[in-house]
Every structure is written in structure tokens, then in C-alpha cells.
Amino acid sequence: MTEARPRPDLELSVVIPAHNSAAVLRRTVEQLSARLAGLPAEVLVVENGSSDGTAALARELESDALPQVRALTSPQGMGEALRAGIRASVGRRVLLTADDLPFGFDDLDRAAELDREPTVVIGSKAHPGSTVDRGSVRSLSTWGFRTLRRVLLASRVGDSQGTILADGDWLRALLPRIEAPGFLFSTELTYAAELQGAEVVEVPVRLSPDHGPKASTVRVRDVWLMGAGLLRLRRRRRILSAPLGAAARS
């Protein structure tokens, strides 16, 4: 896919990975369209290997109105979908979020309240001001992953799996270095930001009322894969920490 040319006049690109998302996608796009109505923004729905009607629904939701809605496709995998969306994005800022908007617009609201624009803003479940009840087992697995990141990567970020609002030029310049194809994509992204000395700010979020506690699906094998993945990231420390080009820093 050819990389799009950034448009400084486009304020925001919202990237939504969509895998078997037919049940929630229409509502999510409608909520985003209402929130961003008339603003210079775009919503990129990236279908990746769905077996339901997600691809057809994404094409149906395409619109030239503001915000513009575009349907993209990518290989299966969260990381692959995020990569395709970032590559196609043209906005000054880029929001990476989920197909069901678990925090509503708390991430955007809290980011707008900051007195500056950090390179990366995370809608963080680990923020002390967040209200997120995901069940005891799920919370324990989240705590374990956070601990692994601190031990293996010396990461200070509390939640590397939250929503991410980032400087568009910086994110697109960083993209060729991010290799993780799955859930570690955002962890690699935030790790690179830390290594480069970019400002990373976590903001509080609330879990939407229709997102109650869910049973954890994490298995012992998943914990092993998490650790192995983090070790791979640590071995790539030199690559991830190398300064980006001057254009990305401006």
C-alpha cells in the first residue's frame, strides 16, 4: 500500500481495527461521526480477516462527509490492522482505538484538557483516576503483564494496551520500526516512545456502562508468549531508540 501524504489541515485520523466486528461496528462509526461531525477528521476502519459481515458493513459505512469514513483491509492481526491504518492516515494527530469504544470519548476529552500536546497520550486503565472493573482474574493478568514490562523493559508506562493518541508525523515515521503483528504492537510503540525520550502522558478513563467485567481468556501459554515477546522487544532496544528524522520531530 502506498503511504498517504499527511494533511496538516486534517486534525484527526481515527484508526479502528475491525475483526468480526459486525455486531458493534455500525454503532461505533455512528458515535464517532456524531462526535466529530463537521470537523476535519477521518475514520479508518481496517477489516482484518473477519469471517462475519464486517468487510461488507465497513464498505457500507464509507462516507465523504466530515468525518470521512474509509474502509481498508489488512492481513489478520491487531498489529497488522493498526499498521495499515497508520500508514493510510493523513491526520495531524492519530487515535488508535477499539472497535467498540470501551472508554467512550474519555481519552479525547482528557487529552483536550492538557495544557500541551504530548507526543503520545494513553487512555490508561492503570491511571489512578480511572474507573475500570474488568474482574479479578483479568486484573491480575493485567498486573502481571505490567510487572513483566517493568522487569524486562524498565518501562514506566502503566498501561501499554490502552487507546493511543499520537502525533501523526512522529507515528508514521516510527511505523517502519514496529514489527509486532499482534497485541504487542501498542506495547512496542510506547516502548519506542520511552526510549526516544518522547513525552508520554497517561490520562484517566472510565469503562463504558455496557462494558461490564468479563472473564479472562488468558492462558498459561499466553503468559509465556507475553514474556517471549517482551524479550524480543528488549533485543530491539537499539533500533527502537534511534532518533527519527528531523521531519518527524518538528
- Gross morphology is globular
Number of strands: 7
Any low-confidence stretches, pLDDT <50, length ≥5?
A: 246-250
- The sequence of SSEs as H and E is EHEHEHEHEHEHHEHHH
Query: Within the largest sheet, what's the order of strands?
Result: 3-2-1-4-6-5-7
Number of helices: 10
Termini gap: 25 Å
Sheet-strand content, in percent, reads 15-25%
What gyration radius follows from the Cα positions, in whole Å?
17 Å
Output the structural class: alpha/beta
Portion of residues within helices: 25-40%
Return the average pLDDT rounded to an integer. Answer: 89
Largest sheet: 7 strands, mixed
Brief summary:
With 250 residues, the chain is an alpha/beta fold. The protein has helices at 25-35, 54-60, 78-88, 106-113, 136-153, 168-174, 185-195, 220-235, 237-241, 246-249; strands spanning 12-18, 41-47, 68-73, 93-96, 120-124, 163-167, 200-204.
Question: Would you give an account of this structure?
Answer:
This protein is an alpha/beta fold and 250 residues long. It is 39% helix and 16% strand. Strand 2 (41-47), helix 2 and strand 3 form a beta-alpha-beta unit. The longest helix has 18 residues, at 136-153. The protein is globular and about 45 Å long.
Top keywords for this entry?
250 residues; seven-stranded mixed β-sheet; globular
Layout: helices, strands, pairs:
Blueprint: E1 12-18, H1 25-35, E2 41-47, H2 54-60, E3 68-73, H3 78-88, E4 93-96, H4 106-113, E5 120-124, H5 136-153, E6 163-167, H6 168-174, H7 185-195, E7 200-204, H8 220-235, H9 237-241, H10 246-249
Parallel strand pairs: 1-2, 1-4, 2-3, 5-7
Antiparallel strand pairs: 4-6, 5-6
Helix pairs in contact: 5-8
